[in-house]
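hiii, so i know i said id send this last week but things got crazy w the move. better late than never?? heres the sequnce for the chain we talked about at the cafe, plus the structure i predicted for it. fair warning i was half asleep when i ran it
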Amino acid sequence: MSQFDIIHKDAAGRIGKLTTPHGVVETPTVMPVINPNLQTIKPSEMRDFGAEILITNSYIIYRKDELREKALKDGLHALLDFDGPIMTDSGSFQLSVYGEVEVTNEMIIDFQQKIGTDIGVPLDIPTHPDVSYEKAKEDMDITIGRLKAARELVKDGMLLAGPVQGATYKDLREECARELSDVGFDVYPFGAVVPLMESYRYADLVDVIASAKKGLDPVAPVHLFGAGHPMMFALAVALGCDLFDSAAYALYAKDRRYITSRGTYHVDKLKYLPCSCPVCIAHTAEELKKAHNCTDLLARHNLYVTFEEMREVKQAIWEGNLLELVEQRCRSHPRMLEALKQMYTYSEWLEECDPSSKSTLFYCGPESSKRPEVLRFNKQLERLTIEGSVLIRAYPTKIDKEYDNVLMFKPPFGSYPQELAEVYPFNAEVVRTPDYESLETAYQNTIKLVELNPDATYTFLMKDTFEHPLVEKLAAMDNFTVVPPKSD
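okay and structure toks below
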């Protein structure tokens, strides 16, 4: 089994160290895809961009005599001229495209071991997202059978991946992950998700990731197959993905597309280059368009941006503000915003993963009211005992000493002891004029607090910007008085 050490956490994301036969890889990270037949950028150059690990296709190497013989003679690392860890896919992608491949599961596992692969992948069945439940279940069962057989074939040396299948059926993804976890693999790729990303079905992708994660050991390293656009790194990492592979840097370049963390531009439509990588510093937009090596330059820019975004994600984990980065990135596209909303339907699970103490929470919009920290506070209300007279204030006042207890009111949390005002997460930076969603959550929490402590009497000093229908429900309680709003 692999050694995967988690160094730092935020939400379900983590910074980790994955030990492989050719060295330790810090995650989360991106594995640039290397086509052994056509290398846009040489593997030996990849470290210059920040790559610690590469991924290539063992089936392509196996099928071409020249590549196969050199790999068998000199090893995979000599073939690619790269001395770091290399993961190899098995031909499952070709299987999904063409319907058949010229190798068996046993043959490709044996070949990957012989050429010195660091992380090998069995020949699983990648199931299209829109197949019937019965078909997804059938493919999943075949995949599990093949993975179990592969596990018996690999004893020492090469790490073995266990791809989790199940299409878009959440119960199948969780079931597959749970069964594979019982067998024991070194890395768990989530397979057949490229069609979801190609059609911008990011909300469905959230379901796939969260469901599969629920079936795995929480510390198991996860690989999201085919996820190479930096726009969605923060989201996927926050859901617990550790490894990504990207052919997008090269494929987009061939189509003259220029990647950013917010989306993609066609280079011919650019007037300026919104980047400070070496490529963009050395060229104007017009020079880049007309360059004879435009494809190569675009591929390099795309790689620089890809690794820059992953470093941004890692820094956010380190500082404890990954979810703020997720919310910022998800506002770059309407389908990503759908994914953000879907992610917070799993706040109960995220709250179990999320550290209980970290940096200041920044409220970034209505979705922030569903964050794990807010949910955790709702649960903690049951531990708060209040007796006597209570002042709940939404603004500073001089009458605090007239009450037995003083609570502060801050959306989206609601009411909490003023002694905790500078303690995480109540030291949150929030907007002065709360949105409807944050007020609703805050008032729901306040109602719960009052119901849990019915013998106390409450006076609420609210602001005129805090108007909400739930205020009427509070005012209707026998032990609750709402003081008319004070204008800002």
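btw The domain at 4-353 is CATH 3.20.20.105 (TIM Barrel). thought thatd interest u
miss u guys!!
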